[in-house]
């Protein structure tokens, strides 16, 4: 199979973990006789430095011409002083919007060999398998106006939470489709007791559910959901929610796996290409040390093989290799009790490739 993959390393550990995932993709290419072409492009702080733009036009062109996109992470203290439009994170928001990537899939599974590295009790997390479906191009992160103004004579700030019905319907549909491949249960998370946008969300989820009589729909308030993730995560399967709730709940859920460094994600729209990236950020605190956990990004590339290329077997092989590496006890620092003997990014990557 011939595929073009755009590689957007970004900043900080983004560069390190994307290189690791690219090596794994090259291994799959060689082992299964595919032909993958990799085209590198700039995004984030590095792109601001070189092109004065966190998402340069040439990057967007390369992405649009590719079959799938692999992204690392953007941002860091060097760019924190910049105004909104120039911030690295804006590059990320813009690429999602430009490519219409409204659905962000964040699978959270517990690994047997990592049960010890979660702050939660083993019996709570053993067997957890949740899919968070986060709306990615609407809500508070995109709504206008967003501005400073004077209210009652003092400085104030305004953000806007807007959802159109069509935006809610398409993400809820996506969640129902995914639920059909799993345990036929969807939990829609909102704050319908307070927010009007959540009331529309809930009504629309109910309407959409009529097209999926085989799938059970439950509603849950976001504060309760935050509690249930810690209290009884095995009860959860597919969770669908709006942009900011999904952002926060998925970072929380990462603790079920042991580390943010284990969480992959896929962002897709109604057209190609989809974008694959770890849930974590650029981790400036450990960047450049060669110690970052590459498994979230490697698992993201496994999602790419499955969802964008339909290569189920190849995707399974990558996931099995991750499991094997972990069960052999080759753990990067974020998962390791003994930080001094932890495996480096490169050691973990090589082991995954070998398996
Ligand atoms: P972060 O996810 O970068 O780091 C949070 C903590 O987790 C840090 O202690 C970090 O060392 C650790 N960590 C994260 N990924 C890891 C990995 N693969 N291996 C080992 N440890 C890992 O979030 P933070 O610190 O809030 O943000 C840092 C920068 O990243 C900021 O500029 C932020 O805006 C940006 N960011 C970018 C995202 C993206 O590109 N998608 C997402 C989140 C944050
Ligand atoms: Mg986040």
TrEMBL record:
Listed GO CC annotations: cytosol
Quaternary structure note: Homodimer.
SMART domains listed in its UniProt record: Iso_dh
GO molecular function (one): 3-isopropylmalate dehydrogenase activity
Cofactor(s) the protein requires to work: Mn(2+); Mg(2+)
Similarity comment: family membership: Belongs to the isocitrate and isopropylmalate dehydrogenases family. LeuB type 1 subfamily.
UniProt protein name: 3-isopropylmalate dehydrogenase
Any single GO BP term: L-leucine biosynthetic process
Annotated InterPro entries: IsoCit/isopropylmalate_DH_CS, IsoPropMal-DH-like_dom, Isopropylmalate_DH
Cofactor, free-text remark: Binds 1 Mg(2+) or Mn(2+) ion per subunit.
Record-annotated site: Important for catalysis: 141, 191
Residues given in the record as Mg(2+) binding sites: 223, 247, 251
Domain Isopropylmalate dehydrogenase-like: 4-352
Compartments, as annotated in UniProt: Cytoplasm
Sites where the protein binds substrate: 96, 106, 134, 223
Lineage: Bacteria, Bacillati, Bacillota, Bacilli, Bacillales
This protein's UniProt keywords: Amino-acid biosynthesis, Branched-chain amino acid biosynthesis, Cytoplasm, Leucine biosynthesis, Magnesium, Manganese, Metal-binding, NAD, Oxidoreductase
Pathway(s) the chain acts in: Amino-acid biosynthesis; L-leucine biosynthesis; L-leucine from 3-methyl-2-oxobutanoate: step 3/4
Keyword Nucleotide-binding carried by entry: no
EC class of the enzyme, as a word: oxidoreductase
């Amino acid at each position: 199979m011939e595929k073009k993959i755009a590689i957007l390393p970004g900043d900080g550990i983004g560069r390190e973990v994307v290189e690791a995932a690219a090596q794994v993709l090259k291994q799959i290419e060689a082992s299964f006789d595919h032909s993958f072409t990799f085209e590198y492009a700039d995004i984030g702080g590095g792109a601001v430095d070189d092109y004065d733009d966190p998402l340069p036009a040439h990057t967007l062109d390369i992405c649009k011409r590719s079959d799938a996109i692999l992204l690392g992470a953007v941002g860091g203290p060097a760019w924190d002083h910049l105004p909104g439009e120039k911030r690295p994170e804006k590059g990320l928001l813009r690429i999602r919007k430009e490519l219409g990537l409204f659905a962000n899939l964040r699978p959270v599974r517990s690994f047997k060999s990592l049960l010890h590295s979660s702050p939660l009790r083993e019996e709570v997390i053993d067997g957890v398998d949740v899919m968070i479906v986060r709306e990615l191009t609407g809500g508070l992160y995109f709504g206008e106006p967003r501005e400073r103004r004077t209210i009652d004579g003092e400085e104030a700030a305004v953000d806007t939470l807007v959802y159109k019905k069509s935006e809610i319907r398409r993400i809820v549909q996506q969640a129902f489709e995914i639920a059909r491949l799993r345990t036929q249960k969807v939990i829609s998370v909102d704050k319908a007791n307070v927010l009007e946008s959540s009331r529309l969300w809930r009504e629309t989820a109910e309407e959409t559910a009529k097209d999926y009589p085989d799938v059970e729909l439950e509603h849950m308030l976001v504060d309760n959901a935050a509690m249930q993730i810690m209290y009884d995560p095995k009860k959860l399967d597919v969770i669908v929610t709006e942009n900011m709730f999904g952002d926060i709940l998925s970072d929380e859920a990462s603790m079920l796996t042991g580390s943010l460094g284990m969480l992959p994600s896929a962002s897709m729209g109604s057209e190609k290409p989809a974008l694959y990236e770890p849930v974590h950020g650029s981790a400036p605190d450990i960047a450049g040390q060669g110690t970052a956990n590459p498994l979230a990004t490697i698992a993201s590339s496994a999602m790419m093989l499955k969802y964008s290329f339909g290569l189920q077997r190849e995707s399974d092989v990558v996931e099995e290799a991750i499991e094997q590496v972990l069960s052999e006890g080759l753990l990067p620092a974020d998962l390791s009790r003994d930080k001094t003997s932890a495996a480096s990014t490169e050691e973990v990557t090589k082991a995954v490739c070998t398996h």
